[in-house]
From TrEMBL:
The keyword Membrane applies. It comes from Amphiprion ocellaris (Clown anemonefish). Pfam families: DnaJ (PF00226), DnaJ-like_C11_C (PF11875), DNAJC11_beta-barrel (PF22774). This is DnaJ homolog subfamily C member 11. InterPro entries: DnaJ-like_C11_C, DnaJ_domain, DnaJ_domain_CS, DNAJC11-like_beta-barrel, J_dom_sf, Mito_inner_membrane_organizer. Transmembrane segments: none annotated. Keywords: Acetylation, Chaperone, Coiled coil, Membrane, Mitochondrion, Mitochondrion outer membrane, Phosphoprotein. It is a peripheral membrane protein. The keyword Signal does not apply. PANTHER family: DNAJ (HSP40) HOMOLOG, SUBFAMILY C, MEMBER 11, DNAJ HOMOLOG SUBFAMILY C MEMBER 11.
Length: 570
């Protein structure tokens, strides 16, 4: 890529490395040509001023260091395959110099596996659920005619009637073996119990795994089980599970088999057969797309036989809002559910569902997912179908959420974002100061080259950069109170002009020579005012968008939105 040689000197600086990475397809001749050109630009002997000479020497050393890596066949092979992260892997010093790229790839993967195994020894995957059942039927069901005359009858009685707590952790033993320890405690109306389970899972191949489970509890007794998963074809898999439950009544065996098949890209079909304490046969179809999720299921069994259908719509917003509804009907009655969920922070999702059924009554279910922990609060409102209960169960959570969103969540997230930005600025302050100094040094060293480029472009009515700014621009009237944070990059951009063309690849522009990040963690753009063939133009480009000028039209992206806007000044 001969148009990328200006990014060459910053290969060994993380500041420019991600931008320079697009150049690894260049040939050795192109690398040599870029190396010679940059050596001429940054050679210390071309500058008499002691300060400029010192700055040129620093950049010259970066050029030389980058060229040494890319001209070394082994280092070049590592970089071409894995990028700069490959050069940072421990253990390359013992690799023979004469190895081919294929051998280097194999060695890299071996080193990566060793590092992965070390990380596995230190990592667990905790998951937990806390469920608190609340009986609030006293708010709506009042059977006593003289209820108000009873002692305390004027205050509805709300109580917690059941709780369930479960927790599990995964302890990777090797890259193929995992131990899973889980436990649970439950209580309902004063009676309860607990269980503890240990499972050992082994990945037997890329197509399947097997698991052995041992468990014990004070209500069900010891448990022994086995589970197998296997991909039979790329579109078809099977799961088989069997277990033995030991209790005072004897041994109770159980078998569960699930067959699943991809019907199309977004649709799965399931067939489940269960034999044991609760025997049943279930078939279901699940369709999951970017904007919706649909499930249809039918089950025949003892004691539960039912038909269920649910639909979920996914809004394409940053909060990942979803609305859902379902209907389930069987021998137990009919239940209609509707609700919504929304992301309220980076790791938290809040949801609420209203359940209306016969003979179950009306319930409100609130669920909060926080990372790998789930908090579930089912609130039973009434045993009857009361319109007032349905109304309050629907409107109450919505009003409460809107109030909390405005008074607590949004101010908290805004303050958290500002705090994170401030921490990011503080942690990178010294690094940004160094990058700023590098950029200013590069601009000083570019002055003579830019003067010659401008003279050449003027002689053929070519491309001349009149003004260029990079950073955060404030164009929205609602954000006028914010201060624009931009830097002048006219000289660095003019230095990138070759043969009356300026080509920037798809990478953040803070990695260009003479650039630095003036507003860490904030959205940035590049604004350029240039002259071509005697006519002035203006272009505005996003930070990571590719740019090619001159341009006399609008460039549209795949979604039909303006990607880079170029305006001709008349």
């Amino acid at each position: 890529r001969t148009d990328s040689y200006f990014h060459f000197p910053h290969f060994c600086s993380c500041y420019y490395f991600h931008y320079f990475s697009v150049m690894f397809q260049a040939t050795q001749d192109e690398l040599k040509a870029a190396y010679r050109r940059l050596c001429m630009l940054y050679h210390p002997d071309k500058h008499r001023d002691p300060e400029l000479k010192r700055q040129a020497e620093q950049l010259f050393n970066l050029v030389h260091e980058a060229y040494e890596v890319l001209s070394d066949p082994q280092a070049r092979a590592i970089y071409d395959i894995y990028g700069k992260r490959g050069l940072d892997v421990d253990g390359w010093e013992v690799v023979e110099r004469k190895r081919t790229p294929a051998e280097i790839r194999e060695e890299y993967e071996r080193l990566q596996r060793e590092r992965e195994e070390r990380r596995l020894q230190q990592r667990t995957n905790p998951k937990g659920t806390i469920s608190v059942g609340i009986d609030a039927t006293d708010l709506f069901d009042r059977y006593e005619e003289d209820y108000e005359d009873m002692v305390g009858g004027g205050v509805p009685h709300v109580e917690i009637n059941k709780m369930h707590i479960s927790q599990s952790i995964e302890a990777p033993l090797t890259t193929k073996d995992t131990a899973i320890l889980s436990g649970s405690l439950s209580t309902h109306n004063g009676n309860g119990g607990g269980t503890i389970n240990l499972a050992l899972r082994r990945v037997t191949s890329a197509k399947g795994w097997g698991e052995i489970e041992l468990g014990a509890g004070d209500t069900h007794g010891p448990l022994f089980g086995m589970k197998i998963f296997r991909n039979l074809t790329p579109r078809f898999f099977v799961t088989a599970q069997c277990g033995l439950q030991f209790s005072s009544r004897g041994v109770r065996p159980g078998v569960t088999t699930v067959l699943a098949r991809h019907l199309d890209k977004n649709t799965m079909g399931y067939l489940q057969w269960r034999w044991g304490i609760q025997s049943s046969m279930n078939t279901s179809i699940v369709r999951d797309t970017k904007s919706s999720h649909f499930t249809f299921a039918v089950q025949l069994g003892i004691p539960h036989t039912f038909m269920m259908m649910s639909y979920q719509y996914k809004f394409q917003d940053e909060d990942q809002t979803k609305i859902k509804g379902s209907v389930k009907s069987g021998f137990f009655g009919t239940v209609l559910e509707y609700g919504a969920e929304r992301k309220i922070s980076r790791h938290s999702v809040l949801g609420a569902t209203v359940s209306v059924g016969v003979p179950q009554g009306v319930s409100l279910k609130i669920k909060l997912n926080r990372a790998s922990q789930t908090y579930f609060f089912p609130i039973h409102l009434t045993d009857q179908l009361l319109p007032s209960a349905v109304f309050y169960a629907t409107v109450g959570p919505l009003v409460f959420y809107l109030a909390i969103q405005q008074l607590i969540i949004r101010p908290y997230l805004r303050a958290q974002k500002e705090q994170d930005l401030e921490k990011q600025r503080e942690s990178s302050a010294s690094d940004i100061a160094r990058k700023k100094q590098e950029a200013e040094s590069a601009v000083l060293l570019m002055q003579e080259s830019v003067r010659r480029i401008i003279e050449a472009e003027e002689s053929r009515m070519g491309l001349i950069i009149l003004n260029a700014w990079y950073g955060k621009f404030v164009t929205d009237n609602s954000r006028r109170h914010e201060r624009a944070k931009v830097i002048d990059v006219t000289v660095p951009l003019q230095c990138l002009v070759k043969d009356s063309k300026l080509i920037l690849t798809e990478a953040t522009k803070s990695g260009l020579p003479g650039f630095y990040d003036p507003c860490v963690g904030e959205e940035k753009s590049l604004k350029v005012l240039y002259q071509f063939r005697g006519v002035m133009h203006q272009v505005l480009s996003g930070d990571t968008e590719p740019l090619r000028i001159p341009k006399q039209c609008k460039s549209w992206d795949k979604d039909g939105q303006t990607s880079v806007l170029d305006t001709t000044w008349i």
